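A note from the maintainers: we've had questions about how concatenated examples are separated. There is no special marker in the raw files; a new sequence line simply starts the next protein. For clarity in this README we add a label.
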Amino acid sequence: MATPTIESPRSGRVSPGYSRTPGSRGNFEMVAWLFMRLSGAILVVLIFVHLYVNLVAGDGISGIDFGFVAGKWADPVWQIWDLTLLWLSMLHGTNGIRVIINDYAEKNSTRMWLKGVLYTSTVVIVVLGTLVIFTFDPCPVIDGVAHVADYCPAP
């Protein structure tokens, strides 16, 4: 009885269904895959430092209030930290949901609509979050009255 021979996996034969054409999206998917790994590693550091500063180093959850956020965002380092956390987490999550949509949405029209809603919501959240971080005013003037707290400069 003859034993069957198994070809080496790297023998160069590629199934026609998996052959790449010059216009294939393989490069984009590879970059998206790499982004997920790198952003995930960076997000672990960003999130644990964020949690430590907000919950462990201070007064815990009871210490987080308007004044805490105002004091934190008075420092540009924390603005950039929180902005990086927002952008990376939104892009990381959007890329993950995009992969899920590609895997489970069978019709092209369904896939198109789901991705449209995903991308629109991502842009809205990133833009609004960025505006909040950079336009946050801890010392607002409402109806001509300055609402001065102890951390605001005298009017």
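[label: protein 2]
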Amino acid sequence: MKKLCISLLLLSTSSYVIANEYTPTQTPKISGFYVGAGFGSFGYSEEDSWGYSNNKIEAKADGNTAKVYLGYQFNKIVGIEGTYTNYGKVKAKVDGYSMEPTSISLAANLGYTFDNGIRPFGLVGMSNLDLKQNKEYLSDDNGAAFKFGFGVEYTPVSLKGVQLRAAYEMDMYAVDYIDVQNGFTTETNLYALDSLYIGASYKF
């Protein structure tokens, strides 16, 4: 009986040690700095067609979105994230008008990291837009925008810090368009730049 008890004690101790050794690899990495990149589609929408006099301009997205993002996740719920986005090109069918917008944003990343590594999340924050127009039809080529988005991340335990992401993000802004022919600013419209993308990051 004494030998059996000693054997059970040793077995229990060994099991405890092995469990402790492997516990860190059983759950995803939670807090830390991360940096990543993404690629996806580009969408552009406007509240109304615009332009000058009776020559209305209706612009359409052309190309794909590329982005670089970095941030810090404090716990399973809260993080903060900065993103640089190159949206692609917006072209109009008339007058050769185009723009190639980019944005730099700072947003709160709010979600929940489950033990299996899946994390649904939402983004809300502000962006600084640079529209890069080839012709100055919009009065503000640079300005602030409201940033929001949502998506899901997956952190495979076996990859130790690698995060895979699928997400949708939008920059929404309001700006006056210019009546070039008459030389004065007319009405204010709402515009939106959005992207549906996949990305990968590494958490340190």
